Backbone:
């Protein structure tokens, strides 16, 4: 733990920017979906729960990106791939079935338009970043 | 909420964000110039908090959800110190880009605060 926190190689360089974006998205998705759970849950339970789930997945992905090692690498790949599938599937469903997804301000609505399309852009950038860092992650294990 | 103040804050936040991202991508390390942006934003956010506390007494009541509004103010207040702290723990160009991203996030949150405060209905 101390060794990794002293070296912190993956949190250097462009990866820092990615992790910062993920941190911001985690904060935005979790806070907003929790407020929606408190104030509007009955109006769109499925959409709001999905939004909350995406916030939790963002949190795990942020931590996995920031940590060294093979396991963190696999966790990051898994969570980020899940996000990509989520934003594509739920994004498409939200446009096809507006009655089930009435809220524009859930994370995956309309491919993440309520969050400046970051939910669509981040998984793609994240997977590209992970692919480029593959050797580095393995080394740190 | 005061639309003019929000507009001013958003302009400052976007300018600080673009400046920091440009400086970072140009290879600059964290400097007084790139860290002044988040410092100013923190002051603007504190002023926003004071405005939010005082405004209802002056007849400017939120039509939106006050809990959501305060969630945004408090969330936004955390961002500039966190970005600056990270910039100082590792003084590289990418830290400056991170500071810029943080400033842009604050800009978005100022916009959201205005929308939440002045939303019609619900």
Residues:
């Amino acid at each position: 733990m101390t060794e990794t926190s002293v070296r912190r190689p993956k949190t250097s360089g462009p990866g820092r920017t990615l992790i910062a974006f993920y941190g911001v998205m985690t904060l935005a998705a979790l806070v907003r979906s929790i407020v929606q759970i408190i104030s509007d849950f009955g109006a769109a339970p499925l959409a709001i729960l999905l939004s909350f789930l995406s916030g939790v997945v963002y949190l795990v992905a942020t931590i996995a990106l920031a940590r060294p090692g093979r396991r963190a690498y696999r966790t990051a790949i898994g969570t980020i791939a899940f996000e990509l599938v989520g934003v594509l599937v739920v994004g498409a469903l939200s446009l096809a079935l507006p009655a089930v997804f009435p809220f524009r301000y859930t994370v995956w609505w309309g491919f993440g338009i309520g969050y400046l399309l970051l939910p669509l852009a981040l998984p793609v950038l994240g997977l590209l970043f992970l692919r480029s860092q593959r050797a580095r992650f393995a080394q740190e294990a | 909420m005061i639309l003019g103040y929000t507009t001013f804050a958003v302009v400052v936040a976007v300018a600080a964000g673009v400046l920091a991202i440009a400086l970072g991508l140009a290879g600059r390390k964290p400097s007084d110039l790139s860290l002044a942006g988040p410092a100013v934003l923190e002051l603007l956010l504190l002023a926003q908090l004071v405005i939010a506390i005082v405004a209802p007494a002056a007849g400017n009541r939120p039509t939106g959800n006050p809990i959501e509004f305060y969630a945004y103010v408090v969330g936004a207040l955390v961002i500039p110190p966190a970005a600056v702290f990270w910039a100082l723990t590792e003084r590289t160009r990418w830290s400056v880009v991170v500071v810029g991203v943080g400033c842009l996030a604050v800009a978005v949150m100022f916009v959201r605060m205005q929308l939440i405060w002045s939303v019609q209905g619900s």
Notes: Chain A touches chain B through 22 residues (CB under 8 Å). Residues 69 and 141 of chain A are 4 Å apart (CA to CA).
